[in-house]
């Protein structure tokens, strides 16, 4: 087993990995950029090492610097979290070349699945349903034009090396195709250094349903059921849940088997996700493979009672999977929302500043994965996600009710957040009924507008906190308690929420 693991990430995922490593008796080593020197993930780790610079490009994206730190401090393995270098095949290869275990799949698998054209070809050859389209370079515009006419408009232009909506264009008629191809190529080149694009049939009102997969070095591959991720803004997920309201037991079984088939086709090891789109008739099509732990992995942890990070460590150390397909069960219903420092009333402009008060909801079956505390600074340098709020209930209705309760009691002061926006989404009648698709927010624009409902409980809670002067300052001590004047037996003195594993 590993003795020392470096976490090549920051924020809530670095905190999440640190907790599991420490519970396993493994030394958790953090890295940090200058703005993060007092961050929660640094304070929680057993050791921390500075990286000169402030921006992600100068620090967390510098694989060479990270390898140097790992070698200097006798690191056995690196956990990349998500984002940054987690799906970087070159970094995975550097780890291998320096006898450091990369906690994830092989560099070859990462490279193949990072290229959407190669991935789609492999899946089609393995018998996995793929969206009709043309999987060639955009250099042959005439072929693309003929294929678009063949499969029928509307079509999607997508970046071969892309993700997150970058390099993607919806084309509704032939006369717009040339401009869309050129714009997608420019954006793909800027974002990924690769201007190849392809087209595929556009599915009207699709659901985004992904399957969690896990493989080990002993030839085993399993799935841990699905996550519905259809609520998205600008192609970024903001609400995830499991089970999906759209899947029957038969469809769930078929999609799970397809995901395992995909994992075996590419020789997948460690944690990953096979993403599908699901049309209104119940047909599913391969979208991509995310070769890392997903942001929304807690949803799967709550409905399976498994610790996926622990499983990642065990598999990376050469041990067999700690579960089998037959031993896995989908129990109850879990929902996750992502709490961002952004202003929904100003087109979701990121909000920066110091978090004056931070009090997450604390109750049974409520989990908060967070990278911040009171006193934390939110800067322009990194993604504005502050925390993930995840709840579990015996049914979807019970889980929704618990989520409403938790959102109404999540107190963050000092920066603007999307908490009230998330509450409006969760409470929308269509969401309550499970009528979801990836264009939900565009179809229900009313969720963007503040309602005339009563003032949320969180506002009154925040007002109560702000009635006392804050004693926080910018020293390390300021991060030890959200409110030093609160009695120790008060529920507000609880720094972390209940966890299900």
CATH superfamily of the largest domain: ATP-grasp fold, B domain
Mean pLDDT, to the nearest integer, reads 89
Radius of gyration: 23 Å
Name the strands of the widest sheet in spatial order.
14-13-10-11-12-15-22-20
Tertiary shape: globular
Head-to-tail CA distance between termini: 21 Å
CATH class of the largest domain: Alpha Beta
**Total count of domains:** 4
Main sheet attributes: strand count, strand direction, barrel closure: 8 strands, antiparallel
Strand content: 15-25%
Q: How many strand elements?
A: 23
Poorly predicted spans: 467-501
How many distinct helices? Answer: 16
Highlighted features:
about 500 residues, alpha+beta, Rossmann fold, Dna Ligase, domain 1, D-amino Acid Aminotransferase, Chain A, domain 1, 4 domains, eight-stranded antiparallel β-sheet, five-stranded parallel β-sheet, 16 helices, about 30% helix
Structure description:
With 501 residues, the chain is an alpha+beta fold. It folds into four domains: 4-103, 3-Layer(aba) Sandwich (Rossmann fold); 132-201, ATP-grasp fold, A domain (Dna Ligase, domain 1, 2-Layer Sandwich); 204-313, D-amino Acid Aminotransferase, Chain A, domain 1, CATH 3.30.470.20; 332-501, ATP-grasp fold, B domain (D-amino Acid Aminotransferase, Chain A, domain 1). Helix content is 31%, strand content 23%. The protein has helices spanning 11-23, 40-44, 63-72, 89-97, 107-114, 116-125, 141-151, 177-192, 249-265, 297-304, 308-316, 396-408, 419-427, 429-432, 440-443, 457-466; strands at 4-7, 27-32, 47-50, 77-79, 101-102, 133-134, 155-159, 169-171, 197-201, 207-215, 221-233, 236-242, 270-278, 284-290, 333-340, 342-343, 349-350, 353-354, 357-359, 366-370, 377-378, 385-393, 411-413. The protein has an eight-stranded antiparallel beta sheet with strand order 14-13-10-11-12-15-22-20, sandwiched between helices. The protein has a five-stranded parallel beta sheet with strand order 3-2-1-4-5, with helices on both faces. A four-stranded antiparallel beta sheet has the order 6-9-7-8, with helices on one face. Helix 4 packs antiparallel against helix 5 (107-114) and helix 12 packs antiparallel against helix 13. The two termini are 21 Å apart.
């Amino acid at each position: 087993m590993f003795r020392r693991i470096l976490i090549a990430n920051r924020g809530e995922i670095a905190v999440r990995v640190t907790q599991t490593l420490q519970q396993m008796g493994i030394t958790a080593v953090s890295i940090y950029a200058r703005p993060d020197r007092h961050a929660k993930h640094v304070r929680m780790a057993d050791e921390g090492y500075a990286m000169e610079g402030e921006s992600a490009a100068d620090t967390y994206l510098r694989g060479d610097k990270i390898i140097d730190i790992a070698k200097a401090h006798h690191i056995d393995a690196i956990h990349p979290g998500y984002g940054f270098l987690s799906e970087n095949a070159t970094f995975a290869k550097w780890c291998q070349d320096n006898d450091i275990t990369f906690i994830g799949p092989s560099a070859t698998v990462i490279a193949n699945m990072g290229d959407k054209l190669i991935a789609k070809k492999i899946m089609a050859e393995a018998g996995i349903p793929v969206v009709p389209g043309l999987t060639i370079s955009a250099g042959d515009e005439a072929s693309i034009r003929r294929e678009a006419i063949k499969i029928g408009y509307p079509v999607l232009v997508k970046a071969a090396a892309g993700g997150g909506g970058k390099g993607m264009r919806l084309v509704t008629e032939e006369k717009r195709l040339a401009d869309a191809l050129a714009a997608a190529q420019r954006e793909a080149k800027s974002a990924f250094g690769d201007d190849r694009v392809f087209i595929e049939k556009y599915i009207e009102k699709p659901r985004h349903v992904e399957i969690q997969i896990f493989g080990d070095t002993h030839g085993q591959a399993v799935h841990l059921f699905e996550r519905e991720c259809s609520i998205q803004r600008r192609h970024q997920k903001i609400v995830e849940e499991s089970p999906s309201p759209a899947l029957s037991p038969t469809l769930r079984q078929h999609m799970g088997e397809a995901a395992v088939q995909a994992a075996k086709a590419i020789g997948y090891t460690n944690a990953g996700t096979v993403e599908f789109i699901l049309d209104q008739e119940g047909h599913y099509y391969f979208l991509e493979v995310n070769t890392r732990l997903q942001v929304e992995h807690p949803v799967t942890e709550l409905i399976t009672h498994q610790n996926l990070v622990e499983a990642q460590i065990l598999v990376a150390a050469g041990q067999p999977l700690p579960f089998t397909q037959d031993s896995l069960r989908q129990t109850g219903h879990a929902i996750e929302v992502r709490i961002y420092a952004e202003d929904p009333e100003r087109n979701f402009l990121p909000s920066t500043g110091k978090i004056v008060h931070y009090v997450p909801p604390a109750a049974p079956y409520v989990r908060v994965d967070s990278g911040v505390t009171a006193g934390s600074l939110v800067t322009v340098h990194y993604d504005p996600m502050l925390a993930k709020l995840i709840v579990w209930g015996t049914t979807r209705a019970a889980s929704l009710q618990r989520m409403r309760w938790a959102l109404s009691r999540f107190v963050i002061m000092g920066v603007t957040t999307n908490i009230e926006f998330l509450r409006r989404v969760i409470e929308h009648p269509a969401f309550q009924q499970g009528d979801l698709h990836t264009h939900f927010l565009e179809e229900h624009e009313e969720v963007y507008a503040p309602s005339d409902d009563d003032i949320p409980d969180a506002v009154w809670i925040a007002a109560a906190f702000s009635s006392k002067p804050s004693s926080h300052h910018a020293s390390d001590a300021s991060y030890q308690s959200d409110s030093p004047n609160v009695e120790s037996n008060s529920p507000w003195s609880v720094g972390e929420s209940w966890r299900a594993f």
